[in-house]
């Protein structure tokens, strides 16, 4: 199946990205365009999914953008790889849980190429790592499905400022921390976006 790959080198405004995703969703639904995988970076922004609670905002001074993706509050910013997608599940398995598992598999496989062992959690969506004695989240996933087309995406922390998460309860999980790849294994992650694209497209074709 044909998938358009898009890579943005400069930071993309969050609102502009979501507008493009929603436009692509309608175009795919009308059989006018192909599926999309889009890798980018955002400037600093906090976004809230459909199930967030006000008490999860610890710093009331932050600017919070409400979005229609699933999940709770998360942070995007420099040093974080964001992978958006618009994928037609009507051409694949019409199974949302299976699609989430596919995303988790893609991230886990990609990080393993950098000798990082990561894993999913049946209770808490996202990808996790063992950081000394603690389990910490290294990638967040937020998906919405409309007309059996899945969109929004996932974000992997590479070398972003982890203190930004102190303003929120990330993804509504208060008893586990957040990590980035540099703090776990200090190496060059410049090709991570290419590896994510390679594994994501491979898993979508299975």
Produce a short descriptive summary:
By secondary structure, this protein is α/β, with parallel strands linked by helices.
Features:
4 helices, globular, BirA Bifunctional Protein, domain 2, alpha/beta, 206 residues
Going by helix content, strand content and strand pairing, the class is alpha/beta
Give me the strand/helix succession: EHEEEEEHEEEEEHH
Q: Which range best describes the helical content: under 10%, 10-25%, 25-40%, 40-55%, 55-70% or over 70%? A: 10-25%
Please, how many domains? 1
Distance between the termini: 11 Å
Largest sheet: 8 strands, mixed
CATH class: Alpha Beta
Low-confidence stretches: none
Rg measurement, Å: 16 Å
DSSP summary: helix tally: 4
CATH homologous superfamily (4th level) name: Bira Bifunctional Protein, Domain 2
Provide mean pLDDT, rounded: 95
- Outline type: globular
The strand count comes to 11
CATH domain topology: BirA Bifunctional Protein, domain 2
Relative strand content: 25-35%
């Amino acid at each position: 199946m044909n998938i358009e790959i898009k890579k943005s080198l400069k930071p993309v405004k969050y609102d502009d990205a979501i507008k493009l995703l929603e436009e692509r969703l309608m175009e795919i639904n009308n059989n006018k365009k192909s599926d999309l995988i889009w890798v980018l970076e955002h400037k600093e922004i906090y976004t809230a999914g459909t199930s967030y609670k006000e008490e999860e905002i610890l710093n009331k001074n932050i600017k919070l953008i409400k979005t229609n993706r699933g999940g709770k509050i998360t942070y995007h910013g420099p040093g974080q790889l964001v992978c958006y997608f618009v994928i037609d599940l009507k051409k694949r398995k019409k199974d949302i849980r299976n699609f989430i598992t596919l995303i988790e598999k893609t991230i886990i496989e990609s990080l393993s190429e950098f000798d990082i062992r990561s894993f999913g959690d049946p209770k808490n969506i996202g990808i996790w790592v063992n950081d000394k004695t603690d389990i910490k989240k290294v990638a967040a996933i937020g998906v919405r499905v409309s007309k059996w087309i899945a969109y929004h995406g996932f974000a992997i922390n590479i070398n972003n400022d982890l203190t930004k998460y102190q303003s929120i309860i990330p993804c509504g999980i208060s008893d586990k921390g957040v990590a980035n790849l540099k703090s776990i294994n200090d190496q060059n992650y410049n090709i991570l976006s290419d590896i994510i694209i390679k594994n994501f497209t491979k898993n979508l074709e299975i």
